[in-house]
Amino acid sequence: MIDQLPALPVVITMAAAPLVMCLLRWPWLAWATTTAACWAALAATIALLHHVLDVGTVSYAMGGWEPPFGIEYRIDAANVFVLLIIAGVSALIMPFAKRSVESEIEASKIPFFYCAFLLANCGLLGVTATGDAFNIFVFFEIAAIASYALIAMGKDRRAVMASYQYLVMGTVGTTFLLIGIGFLYIMTGTLNLNDLAHRLPEVSDTNTVRAAFAFLAVGVSLKLALFPLHLWLPNAYTYAPSMVTVFLSATATKVAIYVLLRLFYSVFGIEFSFEELSMNYVLFPLALLGILIPSIVAVFQNNAKRMLAYSSVANVGYIILGISFATTLGVMASMLHIFNHAITKAALFMALGCVVYRAGGTSLERMAGMGQRMPWTMAAFVLAGLSLIGIPLTVGFITKWHLILASLETGLWPIAVFLLGTSLLAVIYIWKVVEAAYFREPLAENANVQEAPLSLLVPTWVLTLLCVVFGVYTPFTVGIAETAAETLMGGFL
């Protein structure tokens, strides 16, 4: 069984999706099947994590066809860390999902919803696990098409338009990806990422390879919502059902960032990406603008979900900033923030999902007085909000500390000051929610609002407490992030 671990998370979720479609008359059974599949995928991922940390990189040949001719799943410290995020969030969200989905999705559509969720999950797991360039495109498409459906199922009619905007931007992104992959295949005759890394140096001094790099960089940047290519994200997160917002905010952009890391560092290599093409001069200013401008925009939002959506764009900027340093410490800080931001933002959006369940919306007007009506929910929001700001003893502080260290290592001390300054913007927009919840009187229609049920509160608090646990006990996350950074900086062996 241990030899099959690299494929199991993908296979489990893929096999469960059509099974859920057969349960149209039993929505509760569709939820139970999805829950079992997600927890089984998490168990397989945890076993795979231990195996990779013990033995190093694991290669799995699909169907027994040896790479580079067959499709390879290649798992190392970098992508197993991302697999853990996807599988972990998917499993923890399922207890939360039952009541949340029942309140936001028509009963007849619930099995379709869970089928789409499993396909999106499978697609993201596949993108992360595969060692084949064309498979990255295929799994991106599976995840994207399923995500469009998930977003469009939101109660608000604007969810359909948000899904359409995401579809247009996502289609452009995947088209760019496919063109870039095609150019690489023309020049090297292979789609295997490891094989590409070894063959590209022979043809790297060609316009075709440079064009391939450009298409791939733009395509992946659209997927990860790098400023200013982020326009699809705020509406998608705001109008999607609560469970979908939690899932996408914690996983979708993180997977795209992993692909960017894999392409720049492992496939094309540091010398080509950052010395010959000087991508650091592109990523660095976009990261700074991506941190500053969306954070300012977030301050002026009156809807808490939309506010956190712009915050997600800003946090993509933090991750890209670490990547732009092209140092082991910078990449380690980025890998660490991929994990830390995933659990922080999932906890925040789960708390808002609790508010949606009881109050029907997340505008600041509707959230007035929620600190008294829903004390446990708002306490979780405040604690996760402190992590988003970067207060000590939270995971947000660990990330920003390592980003500051990485900037000082490269002699960019003004960037350390910039990071501290932009954290104050997070204080402002998190405080707006706190002020509404604790210092305003509730609306008359929300006067009888009660605390969220335990099925919503418990998963929310599990993720919230993880923001503190991994902020105090850091060897696990920091250790894996450091190993992942060293793996990426070393390229394929």
Characterization of this structure:
There is one protein chain. The chain has 493 residues and is an all-alpha fold. It has 2 domains: 1-277, no CATH class; 280-493, no CATH class. It has 20 helices and 2 strands. It has helices at 8-21, 27-55, 77-104, 110-129, 133-152, 158-188, 193-203, 207-224, 233-239, 242-267, 270-276, 280-299, 304-324, 328-359, 370-373, 375-389, 395-409, 413-439, 454-472, 475-490; strands spanning 58-61, 72-75. Strands 1-2 form a two-stranded antiparallel ribbon. Helix 9 runs antiparallel to helix 10 (242-267) and helix 12 (280-299) packs parallel to helix 18. The protein is globular, with a radius of gyration of 21 Å.
Shape: globular
Order of helices and strands: HHEEHHHHHHHHHHHHHHHHHH
The tally of structural domains comes to 2
Structural class: mainly alpha
Short synopsis of the structure:
The protein is mainly α. Helices cover 77% and strands 2% of the residues. It is built from 20 helices and two strands.
What distinguishing features does this structure have?
20 helices, 77% helix
Strands, helices and their partners?
Blueprint: H1 8-21, H2 27-55, E1 58-61, E2 72-75, H3 77-104, H4 110-129, H5 133-152, H6 158-188, H7 193-203, H8 207-224, H9 233-239, H10 242-267, H11 270-276, H12 280-299, H13 304-324, H14 328-359, H15 370-373, H16 375-389, H17 395-409, H18 413-439, H19 454-472, H20 475-490
Antiparallel strand pairs: 1-2
Helix pairs in contact: 1-2, 1-4, 2-3, 2-4, 3-4, 3-10, 3-14, 3-19, 3-20, 4-5, 4-10, 5-6, 5-10, 6-8, 6-9, 8-10, 9-10, 9-13, 10-13, 10-14, 12-13, 12-18, 13-14, 14-16, 14-17, 14-19, 14-20, 16-18, 16-19, 17-18, 17-19
